[in-house]
Design brief:
With 279 residues, this protein is α/β, with parallel strands linked by helices. Helices cover 42% and strands 20% of the residues. It has 2 domains: 212 residues, Spore Coat Polysaccharide Biosynthesis Protein SpsA, Chain A; 56 residues. Helix 1 runs parallel beside helix 2.
Length: 279
């Protein structure tokens, strides 16, 4: 049986903190099953200290591509989806392993993923449970458990994102055939997974916590901005446009997400967000 190749894909931009990026990259190279490649995509210009952190891993054969801000074609000047697509195009691996620049993969993550996929070659989209922490990774906030089997994943997907974004692994060639990440201002992960789910492609969620994710108050601040609300509108329109959402799903999602963010006080919004809106 042939071996499966894996490429970690990590986007970096100017507001990322060097010490946190270092921890994320370190977690990749401390894997008990090492990836075949690590692709760091730089969005626009970054600080010298941040570039030094990335370069410190160069002897471990990181491939990284630079995406200039002035070449962005994404809406709202939002370059994350375009950065991710650039990474997918430049990868030569069978599967893309996603990791955000502020999250940590447990050291057996890829070993567990490989063990599962070697025995389940038809799976094209794979996720796992995760644990959310505060910004300093000191206080455990919540274990995020997602549905395990495909049928349950498909059902939940019509209402909420059934995958934990930083835990996802997907077949690279399939993502390219589906057009990659859509150029929307938020929820780009959900939109790509929806393309997989629309065609009922084989998927699964490993019922183990494979990623430590930074959450907390900073997420609420970022995702309660006007830009993010505009991104919500874009992503919901996209899901309706590809006929993943019917008109009921579209109206329910759009009005619910916007009204909750606009009307609720911050303390209540935080509770509602982490329980119902986390995507």
């Amino acid at each position: 049986m042939s071996k499966i190749s894996y490429g970690f894909l990590i986007p970096i931009y100017k507001n990322d903190k060097p010490n946190i990026v270092y921890q994320a990259l370190e977690s990749v190279f401390n894997q008990t099953h090492l990836p075949n490649e690590v692709i760091v995509v730089i969005e626009g210009e970054i600080s010298k200290s941040l570039l030094e952190v990335i370069n410190s891993f160069k002897n471990k054969k990181i491939n990284y591509r630079k995406l200039k801000i002035e070449k962005q074609i994404g809406p709202l000047g939002f370059g994350l989806p375009a950065s991710l697509n650039l990474g997918i195009i430049n990868s030569q691996s069978d599967y893309i392993v996603r990791l955000d620049s502020d999250d940590i993969s447990i050291n057996t993550r890829l070993e567990i993923i490989n063990s599962y996929l070697q025995n389940n070659r038809k799976i094209e989209l794979l996720g796992s449970n995760i644990i959310e922490y505060d910004e300093n990774l000191e206080t455990k906030l919540k274990e995020r458990v997602v549905p395990e089997q495909a049928n349950d994943i498909f059902k939940k997907g019509k209402f909420l994102n059934p995958f934990n974004g930083p835990s996802v692994v997907f077949k690279r060639t399939t993502a390219l055939k589906l057009g990659g990440y859509p150029l929307v201002g938020s929820n780009e992960d959900y939109c790509l997974w929806a393309s997989f789910m629309k065609y009922k492609l084989p998927c699964y969620n490993i019922q183990q916590n494979l990623v430590k994710m930074r959450a907390g108050d900073e997420i609420i601040k970022r995702r309660n901005s006007i830009r993010y609300i505009k991104g919500e509108i874009q992503s919901m329109k996209y899901l309706y446009g590809i006929e993943y959402f019917n008109i009921f799903n579209f109206i329910f999602q759009l009005t619910g997400r916007i009204l909750i963010r606009v009307l609720l006080p911050t303390k209540i919004l935080k509770k509602v967000y982490f329980k119902y809106l986390r995507t």
